[in-house]
Structure prediction request, 127 residues.
Amino acid sequence: MLKLYDVTIPGYGTSALYGKSAGNAKANAWRCDSFGHMNFMDFLKLGVSAKLRKEPPKPDGYDYIRRAYGVDVRIGQKVSLRNESASWNGKIGEVMYPGPSTASVHVMMDGYDRPIIVHPSNIIPEG
Prediction:
């Protein structure tokens, strides 16, 4: 299961990133476009740190969706999908942190290890 980490890169700031472990969260930070010019060991020499985040960031990144689509989506909320590909329709997942702002919902489908991106009108809150 993925956990949310605050990954700090000296000179670049702190970002909330998902990973299976602190090391995996650091690797996910390295994979972003800004660091394609260096190998992973050089990236770690920058002094990169990852700390497990105990609660979702505020704001949670879904304010635009609440305003534009009228969908009250929350991190950690269980949802099922409709009008997605046939393989996802009716499946259940959990809403994940998308980053500072987004126009789509990031959902970790049960049994998978990477979130998928879903249109806000295609989620149905469970329970």
User: Anything to note?
Assistant: The first strand starts at residue 3 and ends at 9. DSSP finds three helices and eight strands in the chain. The chain has two domains: 3-52, 63-125.
